[in-house]
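Input record, target 12 of the design panel.
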C-alpha cells in the first residue's frame, strides 16, 4: 500500500509541548538514555523509555505520593484525560471514537466479541502477515466453530486477489496488520476497506507498527476499527493502549460485552426523594467508545503516554518518518550486498527492515559484540527498526558488524 500525502494527518505541530525543533533529532536522541548507551535498532519490539514519558509517569505518581497540592492533582487529571484526545489527533479520528485498551490484542478481541460473528454464521478473513498472536487467537476461535479464512503470503507479500477470493457475502470482518511486524510490508488498507464494505463487512487494522512511526489517517484509509499498544512507536509503557471504533458502529454493530459506569439507586434510603420519571435502577449507557473500556486502566502509563504523544505531534509524524526513511533505504540497499536476503518490499513505506540471514546465530553474535540490539525471529530473520533517536552512525555500526 502507498500511504499518499492526502492520507497524512493535517498539520499537528504546534505549541503542544516543549519539544525540540522538528529537524533537531540530535536533541531528541538525548531524551533516550538507552539509545545513547547502545545501538538500539529495535523500536518495533519495544521503544526505550524517553525522559519525558518517565517524567509524566513520575508526576502522576507524585500526585498519589504527596497529594493534589502544587498542581499535582490538576496534572494527573489532565494527563490521563488527554491521552485519548492526543491519540485521536495522531490517527485522524474523533476523541469520541477512542477507548483505552490494555493492549492491541485486547482491543481486537473487543471488536471480535462485540461483532458476534460466529453466532451470525459469518466468517473472518485474515492473512499470515497479521500479528502472530492474533492469528493464534483466530485459530482458537476456529476450533470453537468460527469460520476463519487465513490467506497465505506469496514471497512475503499479500496478493490482493487472494484476499478478494477469500471474502464473500458472509464475511463480517477483514482483519489485518497495517504495517506487518513480520517483514515491514504495508497492507493496501484502502482497497481492502472497499472490498470489505462492498460485501457488507468491516475492516480491522492492528496499527501497533504504524501509529507513531508513519502517518496514519483511519478515515482516509477506510478503517472501521483499529487498536495498538503504547510501548512501541508511541514511546510509552506496557499495559496501556488504544482502541478505535468508528462512531456510527458503537453499540449498534459492535455490541457491549460489559457495561461500565455506576448505577444511581432511585429508592429509599439511597435517595430522600424518588424520581418518578426513572426506574429504581437507572441505567445510562456510555455514548462514546469508552463503553468498551475496562473498569480501571493503567493511569500511570497514560500520564506518561500523554507526554510522549504531545512530543510526537509537536515534532510531526511526517518528520519522524522522514528521519527514519533514509536509514531504512540504506539498509535495504546494502544488506543484500552483505549476503542477507531482503524480505521487506523495497517500496514499503514503513520503518522496519527485515532480512534473512544464512547463519542467524553468527549474525546475532556479531551484533552483540558491537552492542547492537535488533530482533531475531523464526529460523533466520533479523528485524531492524530505526526510530526517532537513531542516526546514520548507528547504521554504520550495524553494517560494519555484519560485514
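The sequence produced for target 12 reads:
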Amino acid at each position: 500500500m502507498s500511504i499518499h500525502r492526502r492520507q497524512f494527518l493535517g498539520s499537528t505541530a504546534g505549541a503542544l509541548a516543549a519539544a525540540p525543533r522538528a529537524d533537531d533529532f540530535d536533541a531528541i536522541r538525548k531524551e533516550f538514555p538507552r539509545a545513547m548507551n547502545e545501538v538500539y535498532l529495535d523500536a518495533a519490539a519495544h521503544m526505550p523509555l524517553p525522559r519525558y514519558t518517565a517524567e509524566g509517569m513520575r508526576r502522576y505518581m507524585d500526585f498519589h505520593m504527596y497529594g493534589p497540592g502544587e498542581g499535582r492533582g490538576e496534572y494527573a487529571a489532565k494527563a490521563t484525560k488527554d491521552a485519548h484526545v492526543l491519540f485521536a489527533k495522531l490517527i485522524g479520528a474523533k476523541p469520541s471514537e477512542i477507548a483505552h485498551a490494555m493492549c492491541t490484542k485486547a482491543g481486537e478481541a473487543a471488536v471480535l466479541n462485540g461483532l458476534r460473528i460466529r453466532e451470525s454464521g459469518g466468517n473472518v478473513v485474515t492473512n499470515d502477515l497479521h500479528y502472530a498472536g492474533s492469528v493464534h487467537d483466530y485459530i482458537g476461535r476456529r476450533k470453537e466453530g468460527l469460520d476463519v479464512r487465513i490467506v497465505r503470503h506469496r514471497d512475503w507479500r499479500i496478493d490482493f486477489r487472494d484476499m478478494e477470493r477469500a471474502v464473500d457475502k458472509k464475511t463480517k470482518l477483514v482483519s489485518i496488520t497495517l504495517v506487518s511486524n513480520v517483514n515491514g510490508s504495508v497492507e493496501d488498507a484502502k482497497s481492502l476497506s472497499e472490498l470489505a464494505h462492498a460485501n457488507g463487512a468491516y475492516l480491522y487494522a492492528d496499527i501497533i507498527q504504524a501509529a507513531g512511526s508513519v502517518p496514519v489517517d483511519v478515515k482516509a484509509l477506510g478503517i472501521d476499527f483499529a487498536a495498538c499498544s503504547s510501548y512501541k512507536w508511541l514511546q510509552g509503557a506496557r499495559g496501556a493502549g488504544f482502541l478505535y471504533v468508528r462512531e456510527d458502529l458503537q453499540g449498534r454493530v459492535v455490541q457491549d460485552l460489559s457495561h461500565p459506569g455506576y448505577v444511581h439507586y432511585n429508592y429509599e434510603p439511597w435517595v430522600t426523594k424518588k424520581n418518578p420519571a426513572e426506574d429504581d435502577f437507572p441505567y445510562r449507557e456510555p455514548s462514546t467508545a469508552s463503553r468498551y473500556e475496562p473498569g480501571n486502566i493503567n493511569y500511570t502509563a497514560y500520564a506518561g503516554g500523554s507526554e510522549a504523544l504531545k512530543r510526537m505531534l509537536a515534532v510531526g509524524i511526517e518528520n519522524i518518518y522522514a528521519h527514519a526513511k533514509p536509514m531504512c533505504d540504506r539498509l535495504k540497499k546494502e544488506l543484500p550486498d552483505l549476503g542477507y536476503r531482503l524480505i521487506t518490499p523495497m517500496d514499503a513505506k514503513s520503518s522496519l527492515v527485515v532480512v534473512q540471514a544464512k547463519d542467524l546465530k553468527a549474525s546475532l553474535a556479531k551484533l552483540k559484540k558491537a552492542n547492537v540490539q535488533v530482533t531475531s525471529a523464526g529460523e533466520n530473520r533479523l528485524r531492524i527498526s530505526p526510530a526517532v533517536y537513531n542516526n546514520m552512525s548507528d547504521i554504520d555500526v550495524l553494517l560494519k558488524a555484519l560485514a
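The radius of gyration is 22 Å.
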